[in-house]
Amino acid sequence: MNANTSRQHPAEWDQEAQLLSQTARDLPTGRHEFHKERLMAQIHEQIQREEREEREEREERTAATAVPGKARRFRLPRPAIMLPAMAAALSAVVVAGILTRGGGEGVRESGVATGPALTTDLGTATTKGVPQLIDQISLAAAESDHPTVKPGQYIYIESVLADTFLKTVDDKTSLASHKLHRRQIWNSPDGVKGWLIDPAVNDSPEGETLSLPDEQGNTPKAHLGSPSYDYLAKLTTNPDALLAKIYKETKGQGNSPDQQAFTTIGDLLGESYPPPELYSALFEAAARIPGVVVVDDAVDAAGRHGVAVARLDEMSGQREEWIFDKKTHVYLGSRSVQVKQLKGVDALMKPGTVTFTRAIKNRAVVDDMKQTPSQAG
Prior knowledge:
The protein is α+β, with helices and mostly antiparallel strands. It contains nine helices and 13 strands.
């Protein structure tokens, strides 16, 4: 395959992002930084993969010409790497990562990219005890205090988060990180009204509106990738049916169906508010995904140690971890850790590098937009 027919030039990514900016809000509001980091990693992975395959094909053509009677090995056309349109739009329009042109094409990061790589001990991963742990987590989720959200109220979620990424400027790549920062988000149960305060997304300390319709008059419907409380309340709580729905609606996304299903469930645990029955069903569905392991010791962004339910993405070499309190089994947060040593420029992302980390500090139902639980008294 001629890569020139399938690879987008960075300038095209930038143009596409501008055209798709009107739909940026359709991306899950809780994943701005995570999707930015993943977007840039996917762009880099796609370029590296295509260059490697072009080189292999050239070598095969040379070998077939030099050795009489040797047939060229044909490979089946590979599927295109479809970078999520919403992530592309968001990365170029809303968050700090911006594709640049000029002396060298790369990524320009804002002033919040201040620190060195975030690192951690990898911990011990095992398949032993996965069903038992998830049963305990599911039971704790079902028994937790979980008030119903009424019309006119808002779901408030406060977290702290940070990330590490590859930054390329003028053809020079290095590791950088966004420092740990506070994030607050409010969403109405129907998903139509909302507010976000996050210095990595908006420089204003007052934050920005997430209310719909957007500037173009669009009011996107809620779905698994961008759920509202009302949407989640209508989902099946049968673990098998729920997992089948997740596989069906995320088909073609991510690096593999199993990894994308695991990631989708992880997203729902972060900045959404699943009803108790669904909360338990999500964990039970996760237990049915092949490759799920337990990590004996994991640390969230607030420094709290816990036990993690995790899965390794074989393509990226990163392990996505959901972290729970070891005694109460309450959800603490999540992180993604580089586990495998990669080659080329990706080798800068050493095993133990934390590419994304989040700790949930508060999750509550409040009566007004921008009201916090302490203000509600």
